[in-house]
């Protein structure tokens, strides 16, 4: 892996982020509704002077291009602005939310890859068997069902009918002063339903993909050679075949990351998970421009970084790409 | 003694203790579930229930109100109104302190009232306050430019938190002051943790100026945006109280739970009215006969009994029916389709007309369902209604504030005294484009202006009631708004909770007497 490759990718990444910032800024202004009206509405009505003072306080009375310039130069120096709604810096609001989102997304990603690939590999052993059929049907349903529906069903079953999991939030308020271990267990307990909800769609895709990919690889000559050498079935499947079959899975895992983040928005909303998705959703309804832009910025940055990591791991998995 | 005997002895002691346990539990935590996100916790610069619920726990105020609309001592142990109505004297309690230990003086009270006057969106609350004198540390004399009978109610916890001058007097803008999210008040509870959009944790104030209170150790407000999750939390006992519940399905569902009590009490001063507003600038709606025809065609009983499953009550006028100022003789516009058709014909619309109706997006029962009901109902008198959905609140608010509408469903609060929450809708000088919840109907009637302005300064309660009665008769005839129902706000709470806050301000009232039964 060369340094110039990394530098080139970083440069494109930064350019992309600049484009994202400008585009987001302009897009969000196309939405109807005025943040000053919303703030005044939240306050319970207002006078003309109050509306004007709100617009002045938040710089909304300046020309759009001036506002864009102020915003972009702010972001360049790490200042994401002040939330209109909470009157706190967007950076601090997001800082409190990034952790929960990353925890949710990574857990879901881990679960979906682990279970999905395992299901796919198992299914590829006997492509026409019952297990394989089950995986295909499950994958189709999992992919087709909307994420919020899955979430609501899980809530009804596991939080209402059989109340074994908490229905919302990340922590029990009453346990917030407990020991770290108790708190960690509590968070894990709260994480189960949202992480599974989010994982189910992607799990199905990994299962299908790894099944197809494995079937292709399993038919090749070197697998026959491995078998002829007397390698065990497990070794053939997981050592010889999976490494080669993993390339498309890795690509998809990288691409999926963006989808996972957008999926997290819905899951966080259903489960009241205190992450960026929930914050974004609420901020859009309040026309809290700086917060929306901040969340979009961080989410885009996470996707760009994930893609970069995908590229790097692709090179790790496939030695043929390293010279390029 | 053998081990067995020791064990038996211990068990019998434990049993006796258990049997003679006091009826009241010591302290404990109250978890309130809420779907409303506060911007911050300072009710002095922000109206609305989201801020007022925590603000009234954190800040004390000069007076508080009982369930009969009578003022009670709070930071002021006594008070007197001058005979000419032009000044009010408050005598503050001795020895009250803020959460940081600083004493509360008349300076703080004077500073707070002036701050609220300058910065609170309800301008009419303290508008007549001219100057405030503080002859000594415990006396506050409020001088008024004109008599202001709404003043005492405006000194309630929900509207007039007493701020520490030593913190807020530092020259920073009170609307964006950092202390708004980390307040130092003198209320029964002290802020421990405020996570924006998630939770507010408040613990008992051990130095609260009322002896023996508060009873609870802790109040936690959990912000749960999704109502179904909040309902499950109530059923599972994860949350103990759910105020401002408005969906009939939710009310009916929690009513079935034996561990919960569900009540409609506690919203008299909030006065939330759900109504159909007319844009009088529209040539089709400027004719009062058209508005009356719409009123005669609409069946309030169907809305409250069928659409709201009996959880809401009909509302006939601009003042909430549970207020002492409500005039019971107001015309009801009982359904009469023939009369409605005749009125349409008289107004020159015998062939019918087309109208568009907007509604606040969000919970459907109060808004969208009624809009859709009106669409089918008004067809019977030849009005073809198009329901115009807005994707979110800002879009709807933008349309209504810029008067870009014909009919809209709307929800507006009375806020205790008519001066605070009623006048704004009907005074002609409050027709301000761009401002939501002003007189967006563009209603203008000189007699109404005169009556409201007179009622605002009338100190004789009976005369004031009479002025509001006249006002209600006129607007009921003019119909700038057709009032439909009181929002069916209910509070669900754990049946073991004693003294739940069900006075006129509901949960926007200090919860220092709330406690757990054993």
TrEMBL record, chain B:
GO biological process: peptide transport
Compartments (UniProt record): Periplasm
CDD domains: PBP2_NikA_DppA_OppA_like_13
The entry's keywords: Signal, Transport
Signal peptide: 1-25
Gene Ontology cellular-component terms listed: ATP-binding cassette (ABC) transporter complex; outer membrane-bounded periplasmic space
Record Pfam families: SBP_bac_5 (PF00496)
Entry superkingdom: Bacteria
InterPro entries: Peptide/Ni-bd, SBP_5, SBP_5_dom
Predominant location category: periplasm
All residue ranges annotated as the Solute-binding protein family domain in the record: 70-418
Sample GO molecular function, one term: peptide transmembrane transporter activity
Cytoplasm recorded as keyword: no
Family the UniProt entry places it in: Belongs to the bacterial solute-binding protein 5 family.
Protein name (Swiss-Prot/TrEMBL): Heme-binding protein A
Gene: hbpA
